[in-house]
UniProtKB/TrEMBL annotation:
UniProt domain HTH cro/C1-type: residue ranges: 4-58
Gene3D superfamilies registered for this protein in UniProt: lambda repressor-like DNA-binding domains
InterPro entries in the record: Cro/C1-type_HTH, Lambda_DNA-bd_dom_sf
Name of this chain's protein: HTH cro/C1-type domain-containing protein
Any single Pfam family the record assigns to this protein: HTH_3
Phylogenetic classification of the source organism: Bacteria, Pseudomonadati, Bacteroidota, Sphingobacteriia, Sphingobacteriales
Recorded superkingdom: Bacteria
Length: 62
């Protein structure tokens, strides 16, 4: 599980913008956001860099 959706909402960033920044399709980013698919570790680090957060903020520990 990840917190990408929550971080996007907190920062007022759209999935479309994130997809453009990552060079990935909207559908792929939406799958990450909805937790239907987890990004590879290097993609997770890239998302954290783009969003300006520590990668640990994107991880949900339950």
């Amino acid at each position: 599980m990840n917190r990408i959706k929550e971080v996007l909402q907190e920062k007022g960033i759209t999935q479309t913008w994130l997809a453009d920044q990552l060079g990935k399709s909207y559908n792929m980013v939406n799958a990450y956001v909805q937790n239907r698919q987890q990004p590879r570790l290097e993609v997770l680090f890239e998302i954290a860099r783009i969003l300006g957060v520590d990668v640990r903020e994107l991880l949900k520990v339950e």
